[in-house]
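Hey team,

Sharing the PWWP domain containing 3A, DNA repair factor run so nobody has to redo it. Sequence (89 residues) first:
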Amino acid sequence: MTDAKYVLCRWKKRLWPAKVLARPEASTKNKRKKEFFLNVEIISLDKKIRVKSTRVKILKKFHIEDIASSLGLWENSHCSKQGPPVRVP
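Structure output:
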């Protein structure tokens, strides 16, 4: 986990792709649990947050593919509700 450059982090009840900004800081209270914090930047929002290691997953290729395919499905369903795009001359 400490070497990951990109992660999925839980924030506001959702998983967000994020870039790791700083190396982990060890928590002095929970040494047995091996819990630490990461400073990350949520990619799509440019929002910097601090998250617990227990709320983070390493971002892998299949996660990116899942996100891309779900965006494609959302875009297709969104466009079909409004009709095809209109060209403006």
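DSSP finds one helix and five strands in the chain.

Ping me if you want the raw files.
A.
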